[in-house]
Amino acid sequence: MASGIGRASALLASGTLVSRVLGFVKIIVLAQTIGVVGSASADAFGNANQLPNNIYVIVAGGVLNAVLVPQVVRAAKHADGGRSYINRLVTIALVILAGTTVLATAAAPAIAYLYGVTLGPEQLALVTAFAFWCLPQIFFYGLYAVLGEVLNARGSFGPFTWAPVLNNVVAIAGLGVFSLLFGADPDGSRPLAEWTVDKIAVLGGSATAGVAAQALILFYFWRRAGLQYRPDFRWRGVGLGKAGRIASWTLGMLIITQISGVVQTNVANLAFGVAASIAALQTAWLIFMLPHSVATVSIATAYFTRMSEHASNNDLTAVRSDFSAAVRVIGMIIVLATAVLVVVAYPFSRVFESGFENVQGLGNVLIAYLFGLTAFSVLFMIQRAFYTLEDTKTPFFFTLFQVVLFILGALLCTLLPVEWIAVGLAVVSTITGGLQALLAAYLLRKRLGSLDGHRILRSLVQFTVAAIVSALVGFIALVALGGNRADGLALSSVVGALVTMIVVGTVMTVVYLAILRLMRSAEFATLANPVIARLRRLDP
User: CA 338, CA 263: separation in Å to the nearest integer?
Assistant: First the structure.
């Protein structure tokens, strides 16, 4: 069983890693095409391109994660292997998504205004124009999630994580076409008035085409998995009412989360086109999400199906054991990733930006986010534990707790100098996310009776001590490579930044793992012993 989890996690991680690498290439190309910090063009596109995600998660995103996998696992016990249930669930999901997409696209001006109350007329007009091209992504995000989660629930994990590779390829090609037709603007100096219909169509349309390709390719893998979708509108009598009741709390949770997103966007837009704003927050968040997506999501997704099976059999001891194992394995990777990314935050930002002030602006936002990475990843696993128990009510309340605190903090950020608003928002996100994770862990402990807390805490302390030492060594290496000077190797060019990241990251990883070995970390031993044993067998 453990080897199965390991293989599934490795497959998920490999697909996610390739996708994320291409995602970074896409964002780098986007930065070279329209800029990042202080770019009105980038902030306008960033405002519009986040809208389909925001609306999608309200309508279906988290609902699918919370409901679909556990329900499909249970439906597999039906005489037909769950095929009838899957067809009915997919049909109703697609009907809702299609209706939502049409309505949202028609309401693009109102939606853009909701997120852009603080924008000027010319800025809002460009956001709205991009929104018409981006909002159709809602349907394709939903289609991708439905088809992919069904594959995951049936043990076919690879396609869901490899499909975004196609999305990034299409989007990168679209950016290349844009640059060839209209020219690149890496400094973000293109006036808003120069954004004509053809420019907007190529940039916004290629982004939507990538998402569509990501979704449609999954039909091929459905057929390979022996599934064939046939629309079925007979929605009564298969337990969808129960699924709907479960989903109602998740829907509420997502709505309150998006309320905080509206506040954050409007506060960030106070720096629109002037300093770090929406584009900088999105770029920093993409970097922040890299280790989370590669490690946390991959491990959690593999464990989620297994935990759902144990929960369906009311085996809470097994659920607790899986949760503890997942958190400890995730923690070992995420704590190291946090330390490395904090140390190389400026070189990493240099990959996207050129001016030293802009590098600092993006780097400071990234550092502010990163200190909340471990709590964010642990919270992700806690939420999945509640979902396996078909409890979406409790996550609603601990999310409400975080949202209220975040909104208050975000409003206080309006008092900051414009160049520090984005950093302030990231700090507020980190603090409130940490408090949310603590509350969520307490509530899960009450539900399961125990979280194996002593073992988890001991492991996290070991990881943190090792990370602090490795960070000190990494910082010394960073300074030696000129990471504290605009003309140093680390910040003077993209190549220098990449070299610095590789050198510092490698040094920190070696130090981190060596310290864990000295501490006799059980998680490190679990990871390293099979590798060492295999190497010994190869030794003549």
Answer: 27
